[in-house]
Design goal:
single chain, Aspartate Aminotransferase, domain 1, Aspartate Aminotransferase, domain 2, seven-stranded mixed beta sheet, four-stranded antiparallel beta sheet, 11 helices, 13% strand
Length: 376
């Protein structure tokens, strides 16, 4: 290596990284110790039955295909509507809310991240359970938000009684992930009443599979923001569209954050197919019913195999196998072409999160588990 190459190496790398990684000298200090969210694995070495990322096993509404087939590609030369008016109108009609109470974004993840920036950067801590969607602590760390984590109860439900009075914000994933346990609407309202001056964010990514949405509560509680995604119940994970419903002032604040980054968060094609999906209520309801039916069947089968399975109102189940460790079962299923989610983390390392697939996919899972347990 010549002198110029050595100089370049000294400029762009550091030997002082505590984790032993080569780092650019342009990496900000906020990255020190930041542990990013880890998405479910997507190996490409073979074809798998994917039951690890909570995607809907069914295709989007046929009306989505019509929207794609009729899409005028020449309009892609133009920016999309920054106000996403057509989509907000469709959502407003579906949920019986005014468009001024609706915010749309590029996935519910983006919306929640914006909400963290808009509402939770004060001196008081943001409060959420220790076992919940693992993006929440990541956003706290990257945005410099104080957090206070409250342990779930022994029955895996949220311990609202132990939420601190000085909470600067509260996040409720409902149904919770990865447990699948839902919070009743009445419980959410109790929290709203107990913390009238605190913003409560309800992340309802999985609510359509058996939970009670708190959307109606936004009409009488101005400290509630409810966030939905089209990724799960409307089979549009690949389109990245989400929305929030709340008081008009909350929505205005989110728009300030959005327009400080990117006014055009949803592209023209995604807008068209999102509108089509929201408008097809019949397909949406039938799809959810199918997932719920398959989930109920799968729970019975897993329990007959000795699994502990938590009550789920989501499109997944949280299950603890018997006679084999969760990690070993995860590995053996993967070797047999079936992916489920395993976390080597405290409190949940004995459990697997299993997405509900089609009837055929879930039968393949049960058959695979039986074969593995028989060989143990």
């Amino acid at each position: 290596m010549n002198g110029k190459q050595n100089a370049a190496k000294r400029i762009f790398t550091s030997e002082n990284n505590k984790k032993g990684k080569t780092m650019s000298r342009f990496d900000g200090k906020m990255l020190d110790g930041l542990v990013p969210y880890v998405a479910g694995e997507r190996p490409k070495d073979m074809k798998y039955i994917k039951l690890n990322t909570n995607e809907n096993p069914y295709s989007p509404s046929p009306k989505v295909k019509e929207a794609i087939d009729n899409f005028d590609y020449s309009t892609l030369k133009l920016y999309p509507d920054p106000d996403v008016s057509e989509l907000r109108e469709a959502i407003g009609e579906f949920y019986d809310v005014k468009t001024e109470n609706i915010f749309c974004g590029n996935s519910s993840d983006e919306i929640i991240a914006m909400a963290f920036m808009a509402f939770f950067t004060g001196d008081k801590p943001l409060v959420f359970p220790d076992i919940t969607y693992s993006f929440y602590p990541v956003w706290c760390d990257i945005f410099g938000i104080k957090k206070q984590i409250v342990s779930l109860k022994d029955d895996w439900t949220i311990d609202f009684e132990n939420f601190p009075k000085n909470a600067g914000g509260i996040v409720i994933c409902n149904p919770n992930a990865p447990t699948g346990i839902a919070v009743k609407r009445a419980q959410v309202e109790e929290v709203l009443q107990k913390f009238p001056d605190t913003l409560i964010l309800c992340d309802e990514a999985y609510i359509d599979f058996g939970g009670e949405s708190s959307t109606e509560l936004t009409k009488k509680h101005d400290n509630l923001l409810v966030v939905h995604t089209l990724s799960k119940s409307r089979s549009l994970a690949g389109a990245r569209v989400g929305f929030a419903i709340g008081n008009a002032k909350l929505i205005s604040s989110l728009n300030v954050i959005k327009n400080s980054f990117n006014s055009y968060t949803i592209d023209r094609l995604a807008l068209k197919i999102a509108v089509a999906a929201v408008k097809d209520r019949e397909y949406f309801e039938n799809c959810c019913k199918k997932v719920i039916g398959t989930r109920n069947w799968a729970v019975v089968q897993l329990k007959e195999l000795g699994f502990d399975v938590l009550d789920s109102s989501a499109n997944f189940v949280f299950a603890r196998p018997a006679g084999i460790s969760a990690e070993e079962l995860y590995k053996k299923l993967k070797a047999n072409g079936i992916l489920v989610r395993f976390w080597n983390k405290p409190k949940i390392s004995d459990w697997l999160r299993i997405t509900i697939g089609t009837d055929g996919e879930m039968k393949a899972l049960i058959d695979g588990v039986k074969e593995i347990l028989t060989a143990c």
